[in-house]
């Protein structure tokens, strides 16, 4: 799911009728419209864009207020230590996740968007509060995992990023949020969401800039390996932290050759239809392991993480043997029926741990995720709702209407389901 772009990008998107990966005006690009809907070619355009109609956007004044709050939150003192067990040190065992005692575990939770877009737009680090009270509100839903989308340019502190929101300040804020989550027994999942690289091909979301102001089809060789080396070095001593390598790859939108797209996904290099040199999943995994991190790593599929049909074929080699497959699903995706789940996902779930890193719908209700959760529950798989932010649930989609944890009509479904499982 894509977080809200900056206001000037919204205007451009509206004028050009360009579809984004998430939270963008509805419509369809020419390349998406021509995508094949067969089971042997690129998935149909429903995977990209309409999940992603635009939420109501805050004004600059309100964003400035959010930036102030985010800045204060990032400087907050260490959280109180609530009476919660420490999150587990997860590892893959066959097709299950297990803790350090060998007990089977599942990741059940939410996404906490903001770290991917606020910093690069110059408004702060997080969208809304990330203090101990706000984390406790998440924990009160009986959440045991929170996915934290990040921006590689902010983490690396590139020169065009406001130093107040980049480099050491950004890293410190992420580390503080990770610590607060762990203090409540919650597994943090750190994930690369927005990355560098000029991309002008199919489903391009910000073709006029190389900056990490939107989703790109693949990670880049210039900065992404350095990002993961740094992240891995930062958290390698804490194996409770999970790494999610890249939000929603879509190399299949840059070429009609699905085999070439999957090879690009794994191996990177010069990929058809992509303007920059790509860092494939194997390169990023190598960077994590070379840094000495043995943490659990999530690796998504293609087609905005909705297509995992060749995930097992192109699965990267992991010397640590600690990988899980990551999948995203919304009600308008191509693979959004139980028959598709049985055909495309069940073979993957049978062999490796499986995490649905984003589940959601744009109906402001929860009928679709109810079905998804039931199917994943039966398979013993993991899932996290998008997203713990106070946007418009019919276009975000957003789980909450305030940071005290008041659910939207959509969020009621996830909250009640998680509480009912205790």
Short structural description:
This protein is of the alpha/beta class. Helices cover 30% and strands 13% of the residues. The strands form two sheets. Strands 4-5-6-7-8-9-10-11 form an eight-stranded parallel beta barrel.
Task: Tell me the total number of β-strands.
Answer: 11
Distance, first to last CA: 28 Å
**Proportion of residues in helical segments:** 25-40%
Radius of gyration: 19 Å
Proportion of beta-strand residues: 5-15%
Strand order of the largest sheet: 4-5-6-7-8-9-10-11
- Kindly name the structural category: alpha/beta
Largest beta-sheet characterization: 8 strands, parallel, barrel
> What would the average pLDDT be, to the nearest integer?
86
Secondary-structure element order, as H and E?
Answer: HHHEEEEHEHHEHEHHEEHEHEH
Helix count equals: 12
Low-confidence stretches: 4-46, 48-80
Q: What sort of overall outline do the alpha carbons produce when their principal axes are compared? A: globular
List keywords for this structure.
422 residues; alpha/beta; 8-stranded parallel β-barrel; 3-stranded antiparallel sheet; 12 helices; 11 strands; 30% helix; globular
Describe the protein's architecture and organization.
The chain is an alpha/beta fold and 422 residues long. 30% of the residues lie in helices and 13% in strands. The strands form two sheets. The protein has an eight-stranded parallel beta barrel with strand order 4-5-6-7-8-9-10-11. Strand 4, helix 4 and strand 5 form a beta-alpha-beta unit. Helix 7 packs parallel to helix 9 and helix 10 packs parallel to helix 11. The longest helix is centred in the middle third of the chain and has 16 residues. The radius of gyration is 19 Å and the shape is globular. The two termini are 28 Å apart. About 18% of the residues have low confidence.
């Amino acid at each position: 799911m894509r977080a809200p772009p900056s206001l000037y990008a919204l205007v451009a998107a509206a004028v050009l009728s360009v579809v984004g990966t998430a939270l963008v005006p509805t419509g369809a690009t020419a390349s998406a419209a021509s995508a094949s809907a067969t089971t042997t070619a690129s998935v149909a355009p429903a995977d990209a864009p309409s999940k992603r109609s635009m939420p109501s956007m805050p004004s600059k004044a309100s964003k400035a207020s959010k930036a102030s709050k985010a800045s204060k939150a990032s400087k907050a003192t260490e959280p109180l230590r609530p009476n919660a067990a420490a999150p587990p040190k997860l590892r893959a065992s066959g097709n299950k996740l297990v803790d350090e005692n060998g007990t089977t575990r599942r990741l059940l939770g939410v996404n906490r968007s903001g770290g991917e877009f606020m910093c690069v737009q110059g408004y702060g680090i997080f969208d809304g509060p990330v203090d101990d009270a706000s984390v406790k509100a998440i924990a009160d839903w009986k959440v045991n995992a929170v996915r934290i989308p990040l921006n590689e340019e902010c983490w690396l502190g590139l020169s065009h990023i406001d130093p107040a929101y980049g480099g050491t300040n950004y890293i410190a804020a992420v580390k503080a949020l990770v610590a607060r989550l762990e203090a409540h027994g919650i597994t943090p999942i750190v994930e690369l969401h927005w990355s560098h690289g000029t991309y002008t091909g199919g489903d391009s979301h910000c073709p006029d800039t190389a900056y990490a102001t939107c989703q790109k089809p693949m990670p880049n060789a210039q900065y992404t390996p350095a990002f993961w080396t740094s992240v891995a070095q930062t958290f390698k001593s804490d194996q409770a932290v999970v790494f999610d390598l890249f939000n929603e790859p879509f190399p299949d939108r840059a070429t009609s050759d699905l085999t070439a797209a999957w090879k690009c996904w794994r191996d990177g290099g010069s990929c058809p239809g992509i303007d920059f040199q790509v860092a494939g999943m194997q390169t990023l995994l190598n960077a994590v392991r070379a840094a000495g991190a043995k943490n659990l790593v999530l690796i998504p599929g293609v087609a905005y993480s909705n297509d995992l049909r060749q995930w097992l074929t192109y699965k990267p080699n992991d010397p640590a043997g600690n990988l899980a497959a990551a999948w995203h699903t919304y009600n308008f995706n191509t693979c959004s029926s139980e028959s598709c789940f049985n055909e495309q996902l069940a073979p993957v779930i049978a062999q490796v741990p499986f995490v649905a890193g984003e589940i959601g719908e744009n109906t402001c209700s929860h009928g679709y995720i109810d079905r998804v959760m039931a199917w994943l529950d039966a398979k013993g798989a993991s899932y996290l709702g998008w997203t713990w932010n106070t946007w418009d649930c019919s276009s975000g989609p957003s789980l909450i209407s305030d940071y005290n944890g008041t659910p939207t009509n959509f969020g009621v479904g996830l909250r009640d389901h998680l509480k009912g499982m205790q």
